[in-house]
Amino acid sequence: MACLIAAESAIFTIFVVAYLFYAGKSQIGPTPREVLETPIFYTICLLSSSLTIHSASKLLERGKRGAFLGLWFLTIILGGLFLYGTGQEWHRLIYERGLTLCTNVFGTTYYSLVGLHASHVIAGLLMLSIVFLFGLAGRVGPEQSPRVEVLSLYWHFVDAVWVVVFTVVYVLAR
Amino acid sequence: MSSDVIAIQTPEGAGRSWLEMLHAWVTTVDHKRLGILYILYALVFLVIGGIEAMIMRIQLMRPHNDFVGPQVFNRMFTMHGTTMIFFVAMPILFGFANYLVPLMIGARDMAFPRLNAFGFWLTALGGFLLYFSFVGGSGLYGAGNAPDVGWFAYAPLTSRAFSVGHSADYWTIALLVSGFGSISTAINIIATILCMRCPGMKLSRMPLLAWLNLVMAAMVILALSPLTAAQIMLSIDRYLGGHFFDTQAGGSATLWMHFFWIFGHPEVYVLIIPAFAFASEIIPVFSRKPIFGYPVMVAATICIGFIGLSVWAHHMFTIGMTSYSNSFFVFTTMAIAVPTGIKIFNWLGTMWGGKIQFKTPMLFCIGFLFQFLIAGLTGVMMSVAPFDWQLGNSYFVVAHFHYVIVGGILFCLFGAFYYWFPKITGRMLSETLGKLHFWLFAIGFHLTFDSMHIPGLLGMPRRIYTYEPGRGWEIWNLIETIGVFIQGIATLVFVANLVLSYFKGPEAGNDPWDAWTLEWSVSSPPPPYNFASIPTVASRRPLWDRKHSEDPDSRYE
């Protein structure tokens, strides 16, 4: 998983480099300053889901299945909320501001960078849900703890990437 | 020697129908079978890519030739480059890594057998997708079939305006898919080497082949991911109307070059490091001496790995970067010659004073040493930016990198075939045919690629489909084409040798070369479980210790 994360980090690095390279190079509007709104609430959701998944896997290690399932479900909810936030922002940008992937270079880089991250969130949520369903069926116990740890490592990675994406998109390149 | 054998239900018992055999091969997760699949798959593409090269050489044999038209010529060089890098060199090296690494470190399989099979079938799918473009590439437009954008597919040539139809999409998706396959295989190799070593096999005792493949896998992860990202961007441009590489809407064609070469140059080291690995195993055995300077070899490899990631823009001197970035990439490129030189001296140091046996694998490795040195020297020449301005995109460049890839990598690969074929099949390859293969191929290689330098110096650009007479290029082009045909005959000799020896070759026994690494301690071909009891090692040459218990290496390390 560490290797996969290294490979994924390289992919994200390239997209971030492209975003920074093209920042401010759009020939026509809208520009990031005009249209972007900082998604503070949804960012908090995603980041706090790192905490919940961490304590969930610690609880599983100690054999507390019920508490594990509860926190695990909370993680899924928080991830889902974040995804909803992204979707809402995209909807606003497309229908109210007229910014699509084809509009200008900002649109292209913005949607692909945030979209790449969102697709990782979706993949993560799918895997989390599978574990949750297995958990409901009573098949996840302390003996699966190392595997759950690996999945939680992936989720931490997705969160960490968001910190970078957030900094780049909403702070640095406004 | 661990001759104890477990009685096990063998999957390939006599009396099974060919359909069951086929099913067993297609669904296999055994690292040895997957390794063989990788190698066979790559050999098929080697022949296809070779035929494409021959078509180009026939076309360039004399000025104003009309064997193929310019469109077909463009497709041929694109397909030749893409095939040889992604569907010959990478899979064949992964195949050997798959086959040998677990055997050498005393493991029963790779860390993730199913991921291994997944990686192979993704790579295979990529190759089929690329070649399906000959059939499906024209799409609804009836324009072009195979990709014709060159193997590095510079923007804006790949934009929809200039590449109508789907050929460029097949190229993109084939590379994307096989890239995922390569990344998963690389993850597998790293996990195997780090977690599956047998007791006593410390990192400092690991065979150099395993060490070098570890570095190779790390580079695959760091280098192929940018290519994957760039291919995703290109797909976004072509399908969703994005502007990453669209210069008319503020996009940048230079960015594609950077992204491609951030992959493209480390890729060269991804290919050459496993070739170094073969040389580092073969040369000591046939010199009857342990490898000279083991720790330095490892350090030099890691050094190459690091520097190799920071030299990419030496492919881009001619696009007009600032003098600061030019100087940076000149110096890093020159610096990489240092660890590479260390390696060459270490191989020579291994041979120095040894009782050298000139068997076919050794011949190929000696050819490699000589040719790789020359390839390195032309590389240092071209690392000087002004020299590169003069010769960029000329046949001198083509000669240089074919010297690396054919003279370096392919020679080592042939050596590896002659060295490990007995282990893989249980039969020896014919020495007579092998020597014939070596000499024919060496002569053909030097005819083609030595003479290719000269029209380059005379100003012949690469990728032209024909040329004017009277520029002094004719004779050299004719010699190159003759050399290609000699190489083709040599390859036929090689294939004949593989087939004949597989059925009629003498039995190899466990250890035909009197070698020292663990793969020679098991039967040939190895049993499905590799080791009946997991071995314990105490030195870098575990098999030497077993054969010479009165004077083991472990006493000195």
CATH class of chain A: Mainly Alpha
The rounded distance between the terminal residues' Cα atoms of chain B is 22 Å
Which superfamily, in CATH terms, is the homologous superfamily of chain B? Answer: Cytochrome c oxidase-like, subunit I domain
- The best one-word shape of chain B is globular
Percent of residues of chain A in beta strands?
Answer: under 5%
Q: What is the CATH architecture term of chain A? A: Up-down Bundle
Structural class of the helices, strands and pairings of chain B? mainly alpha
| Structural class assignment of chain A | mainly alpha
Number of strands of chain A: 0
Which runs of chain B of at least 5 residues are low in confidence (pLDDT < 50)? Answer: 9-13
Query: How helix-rich are the residues of chain B, as a percent range?
Result: 55-70%
Write down the Rg of chain B: 24 Å
Q: How does the SSE layout of this entry go?
A:
The complex is a heterodimer of chains A (174) and B (557).
Chain A lengths: L1 H21 L9 H4 L4 H22 L3 H31 L9 H32 L8 H28 L2
Chain B lengths: L17 H9 L4 H29 L10 H35 L8 H24 L30 H29 L12 H33 L12 H35 L6 H15 L14 H13 L1 H15 L8 H24 L1 H7 L3 H31 L5 H27 L16 H31 L37 H6 L10
Helix pairs in contact in B: 2-3, 2-4, 2-15, 3-4, 3-5, 3-7, 4-5, 5-6, 6-7, 6-8, 7-8, 7-11, 7-13, 8-10, 10-11, 11-13, 11-14, 13-14, 14-15
What does this entry show, briefly?
The complex is a heterodimer of chains A (174) and B (557). Chain A has 174 residues and is mainly α.
Report on this model:
Chain A has helices at residues 2-22, 32-35, 40-61, 65-95, 105-136, 145-172. Chain A has 174 residues and is mainly α. Chain A has a single domain, classed as Four Helix Bundle (Hemerythrin (Met), subunit A) (Up-down Bundle), CATH 1.20.120.80. In chain A, α3 (40-61) packs antiparallel against α6 (145-172). Chain A starts with a helix and ends with a helix. The model of chain A has no long low-confidence stretch (mean pLDDT 88). Chain B has 557 residues and is mainly α. Chain B has one domain (31-555): Cytochrome C Oxidase, Chain A, CATH 1.20.210.10. In chain B, 65% of the residues lie in helices and 0% in strands. Chain B has 16 helices and no strands. In chain B, α3 packs antiparallel against α4 (113-136) and α5 packs antiparallel against α6. Chain A binds chain B through residues 3-4, 6-15, 18, 21-22, 25-27, 101-102, 104-105, 107-109, 112, 116, and chain B through 183, 186-187, 190-191, 221-222, 224-226, 228-230, 232-233, 236-237, 240-244, 249-252, 255, 259, 262.
